[in-house]
Write the structure tokens for this entry.
Amino acid sequence: MIHFGGCLCGKVRYEVEGTPSRVGVCHCRYYQLRTGSAFGVSVYFPEDKCAKTSGELEGYSYKTESGNRVKVERCGNCGTSLFWRIDADTYTGVVGIAGGTFDPPTFWYDLHREVFTRTKAEFCSIDAPETHSTHPIYMPEKRDDPRLRGD
Ligand SMILES: [Zn+2]
């Protein structure tokens, strides 16, 4: 099964094959800032099941409180963030895809878990099989300032 997606302006297009290895809703501040919204929808696929078919990406990277580097790629034209990679063991060989960028029916995949509910907006009501106040691999080695930590 092939699914297609892309950015707002339509220049970046991608396709994925099969089903995601994991799908999460993340309420962390990093994703709230990346999306400009209340949460991010993260659809993880093995690298070899996801292919960009057109468009140019530009990158931005940051280090999380746990010391993991997150490399985000967004459309160089419209700025939609589409992909990211996290240099932590549990994310080796997988690419995160922004869940709202799939073509309709956009939300065709099943949600596995909800993470970083400590910074969840009160108006959000999401029904996930698994919920975590932070993240299963959260192990802070530094303390972000309140703007990024959310307290
Ligand atoms: Zn674009």
About this structure: The longest helix spans residues 29-35. Residues 7-9, 11-12, 75, 77-78, 80 surround zinc ion (CB under 6 Å).
